[in-house]
Amino acid sequence: MKSFIGTGVALITPFKEDLSVDVQALENLVENQIENGIDYLVVLGTTAESASLNKEEKQLVINTVVKQNNKRLSLVLGMGGNNTYALCEELKAADLSAFEAILSVSPFYNKPTQEGIYQHFKAVAAASPLPIILYNVPGRTASNILPETINRIARDFDNVIGVKEAAGDMVQAMKLISLVPKDFLVISGDDMLTLPMVLAGGKGVISVIAQGFPAEFSKMVALGLEGKPAEAYELHYKVQRSIDLIFSEGNPAGIKALLALKGSIQNNLRLPLVKATPTLQQQIEDFLKNFS
User: Fold this and answer.
1) Which of 52, 92, 259, 288 gives a 20 to 30 Å CA spacing to 85?
2) Known active-site residue 164
3) What subunit structure does UniProt give (predicted)?
């Protein structure tokens, strides 16, 4: 589990103008993350626009990241869904040999009760050959996994090793950290709350903004884990405005605009997502001009 302490990055999927997967850009992006101190990579999460990739494209993304990474960093694969049986069958059939853990989002759209969420992850835990990191993101799933439910899952299933907590609620995060077993990983899924969560006992982040500023953000998290809040907050405030900007029109529109302005990718998204507005792109460009 030490592999997942620190800064993980939820990788985007770069697209060419024809909206095919830009393999070269993805290779370069992976290399940039490794060179700038990221601790692990998350493949095919929300930020990857995985909902709009077909099976062949998902495999292409996996193959590209695995090859470029070349076993240097730990890899986490996003595998979730709101059809429990189908997800379990997928977990049993998938070749997961290149990965060390699964990131599995709470069932969306169905709006299960807390007992339904527990039973879903009970089935997933039984089916998965890899350790599981839960993903609580009520803004997308329309249901919140309460700290008590996460604690219950953590204590009942040994291969559920952590949670990406993205409710955006610091009070809930602190309650969660206080409840779960000491070796259970509470990982921030909210870039703005990452440092406060780490200082409260969290183990790091699965980040979006770190993809744009890998050196600065990973250093901030490391300083937080070392118990150096003053130095860590200097870096937090340095990137803080960029976090507001990249999420103001949704993810990954903002981070793709930032990466395109940095020359890393072409700024293309698949419908129903669209590019950041010219106004937001200008605001991000202004931020980058003043960032040093």
Assistant:
1) 52
2) yes
3) Homotetramer; dimer of dimers.
- Domain ranges across the chain: 2-227
- 135, 203, 219, 256: the active-site residue: 135
Q: Is 136 left (phi over 0), alpha (psi -120 to 50) or beta?
A: beta
Cis omega (within 30 of 0) on the bond before 112? no
pLDDT tens for residues 85-131? 999 999 999 999 999 999 999 999 999 999 999 999 999 999 999 99
Q: How far apart are CA 278 and CA 280, in angstroms?
A: 6
Tell me the two tokens of residue 262.
């940095």
Among residues 40, 58, 118, 164, which one is catalytic? 164
pLDDT at 1: 65
84 annotated among ligand-binding-site residues: no
What 8-state DSSP symbol labels residue 55?
A: H
Does the active-site annotation cover 118? no
CATH number of 2-227: 3.20.20.70
Give the burial string for 40-78 (b: 16+ CB within 10 Å, else e): bbbbbbbbbbbeebeeebbebbbebbbebbeeebbbbbb
